[in-house]
Design brief:
By secondary structure, the chain is α/β, with parallel strands linked by helices. Helix content is 32%, strand content 20%. The chain contains 15 helices and 16 strands.
């Protein structure tokens, strides 16, 4: 194979606030020019933008009206694919769903039997918590004590009714710290006080939790649940959901204490009433153990705990799992270059974010990687250690950050032309 042969895989995450992953891929392809054969595969790490990325790669967008974090209705979406029934059925009777095609720049992946770009044939829903229960769904100020994950549970229930046999949960961008109780309430679980009354939604209410009634849980025995994310915090303690992430959701010091106690109570009652290893309360001291101490239990305000404890979810590194789901490794066969990127290449990039995951996967196949971004704070040595040969930032050609945001598309095409000159 000559240096000029082979295709270029374009696998970027979103540029937050300016371009989706699919739009980034389309702009890069345009900048590389018509003579360069490209394969666009927008990616995500389980956080904001995961549904958009998966839809851009060939899944169907399903839109549903659900309960937002403050109780108001919101329109949310998840990504869906059922190879066995693709094109042969719509939503189940009585369901409110709309299939929305991917936007401009989406790759024309074949979807018919025998031509699937995906690694298996299981009916799969990819659900992004932020779609229903995220900070972006708040109609006003954060409501740290009462925000709920109920809408995420409604999305799960919708996908189960539709026939999902695998549900992938992306848990970034949460507005709530309710330990996933709201999600489970939407799936039929009742959280009861000492009088047998169902608790209101929200994290603070869990301080009065006395019993968990799972008798009404929807039928999920045949559904595999996967949590795809890069958060490894436990549920409780100084690195737990309330302490670390509560302030990001509007919780002050006293509210953090309230939420920490509420989550501890949730874990303790779960352990006591259902034999789940959660936490033990003794002499006023909470000792995290078992599920509550597992990495990822503190994700999304404790939704990770509920997924582990009640849904028997498997926690997987977000970008690695999603690359497998989308068949990224198959796209590397015969590739001469991979172009990845995200809005900011910084220290967080090296901690399980999409560009680092793409670079690691490409390195195993011996394909070089370059990155594009809005800005970068990582040096060449750090990038090289992560498997990224070079990085090109919009701020290299436009010093004004505001212009970089407003004109990200055209600037990215210019940047891609520089990538082509240097690496193709």
């Amino acid at each position: 194979m000559s240096e000029s042969s082979g295709h270029v895989v374009i696998a970027p995450d979103k540029f937050k606030g300016s371009l989706t992953g699919a739009e980034v891929a389309a702009r890069v392809a345009a900048g590389l020019g018509p003579d360069v054969v490209t394969v666009a595969l927008p990616v995500a790490d389980g956080g904001d933008g995961t549904v958009d990325a998966v839809v851009a790669c060939g899944f169907t967008r399903v839109e549903v009206e659900v309960t937002g974090p403050t109780g108001q209705p919101v329109r949310a979406a998840y990504a869906w694919r059922d190879p066995a029934a693709e094109g042969a059925r719509g939503p189940a009777a009585g369901e409110d769903a709309a299939a929305v095609p991917a936007g401009p720049g989406s790759p024309p992946f074949p979807a018919g039997p025998g031509s699937s770009p995906f690694p298996d044939e299981v009916a799969t829903a990819v659900i992004e918590l932020a779609e229903a229960s995220g900070l972006r769904r708040l109609p006003g100020d954060p409501q740290a004590l009462t925000a709920t994950s109920y809408g995420t549970g409604e999305l799960i229930a919708h996908a189960v009714r539709r026939g999902a046999r695998r549900i992938v949960l992306g848990l970034g961008g949460s507005a709530c710290t309710d330990g996933g109780a709201g999600m489970m309430q939407a799936l039929g679980v009742r959280f009861l006080d000492a009088a047998g009354q169902e608790l209101p939604r929200g994290g603070a209410a869990l301080r009065a939790l006395e019993k968990i009634d799972k008798s009404g849980l929807v039928a999920i025995d045949e559904v595999e649940f996967v949590v795809a994310g890069d958060v490894d915090n436990p549920l409780l303690g100084p690195y737990g959901a309330a302490t670390v992430y509560g302030p990001q959701k509007g919780a002050g010091p006293e509210e953090v204490k309230v939420l920490e106690g509420a989550l501890a109570r949730l874990a303790a009652v779960a352990a006591h009433t259902h034999g789940l290893a959660g936490a033990i309360e003794h002499d006023g001291i909470v000792r995290p153990m078992g599920v509550a101490a597992q990495p990822g239990a503190g994700a999304a305000g404790g939704v990770g705990f509920a997924a582990l404890a009640f849904l028997s979810a498997d926690v997987r590194p977000g970008i690695e799992y999603l690359l497998d789901l989308l068949g990224f490794h198959d796209r590397l066969d015969g590739a001469r270059l991979v172009i990845t990127g995200e809005g900011s290449l910084d220290e967080q990039t090296l901690r399980g974010k999409a560009p680092a995951g793409v670079a690691a996967a490409a390195a195993k196949a011996g394909v070089p990687v370059v990155a594009v971004c809005g800005r970068r704070t990582l040096g060449d040595e750090e990038l090289n250690a992560a498997g990224i040969t070079a990085a090109y930032a919009l701020t290299d050609i436009e010093p004004d950050p505001a212009v970089c945001m407003s004109e990200a598309g055209p600037l990215l095409e210019r940047l891609a032309r520089e990538v082509a000159r240097g690496h193709l």
